[in-house]
Amino acid sequence: GAGVSQSPRYKVAKRGQDVALRCDPISGHVSLFWYQQALGQGPEFLTYFQNEAQLDKSGLPSDRFFAERPEGSVSTLKIQRTQQEDSAVYLCASSALAGGPADTQYFGPGTRLTVL
Amino acid sequence: GQNIDQPTEMTATEGAIVQINCTYQTSGFNGLFWYQQHAGEAPTFLSYNVLDGLEEKGRFSSFLSRSKGYSYLLLKELQMKDSASYLCAVRNSGNTPLVFGKGTRLSVIA
């Protein structure tokens, strides 16, 4: 597993359903980021972990969004009571170092969420 | 506030050179990144600048002027496969999340 993987790749939910999106970072990467990308836009920050600690969740749009990384590896982004405005691609990225000067974020392919 | 501006769309001819500009106003600065994103795929890392000047990597080069809040990505010898969105992103400090522009959609035509 060389890169960041995400599952599922596509998710269709009915409005009001709960969804869980999974991210497997590159092995050994300390930092993990979640971004939301609307069609034709750049990614927007949601939340960020360093190992298992959630250091910043200021980008989460509402309290329906929750993320965890309990063992400092795999992370799950959960959206409760989905709304149509939650439809977007959810990208996960990981980076090797905590604060390194050229610490590059490597992205997964994303989960495309469609809420009907 | 934080603002990163780049053109929405550009078109260039196969074999030519294209320059994609990015201007930024952010609360801090600890590096500027360029990513390439093909439709439906992950953004892939192209380049990183933290000091003023030009970084060259094969057909791709990236330039930074911190005093002007300005960067550009230069693509030479354009190929059809270079048709993609190009994302400019700034990191404010440390290992903080990236702030992205909206991306520039480049179309390479024959």
Model description:
- The complex is a heterodimer of chains A (116) and B (110).
- In chain A, a hairpin with a 2-residue loop joins strand 5 (44-50) and strand 6 (53-56).
- Chain A has no helices and eleven strands.
- By secondary structure, chain A is mainly β.
- In chain A, strands 2, 4, 5, 6, 9, 10 and 11 form a seven-stranded mixed sheet that branches. A four-stranded antiparallel sheet of chain A has the order 1-3-8-7, with no helix packed on it.
- Chain B is mainly beta and 110 residues long.
- Helices cover 0% and strands 56% of the residues of chain B.
- Chain B contains no helices and eleven strands.
- Chain B has strands at 3-5, 9-13, 18-25, 32-37, 44-49, 53-57, 60-65, 70-75, 84-91, 98-100, 104-109.
- In chain B, strands 2, 4, 5, 9, 10 and 11 form a six-stranded mixed sheet that branches. In chain B, strands 1-3-8-7-6 form a five-stranded antiparallel sheet, with no helix packed on it.
- Chain B is globular, with a radius of gyration of 13 Å.
- The chains are: A mainly beta (116), B mainly beta (110).
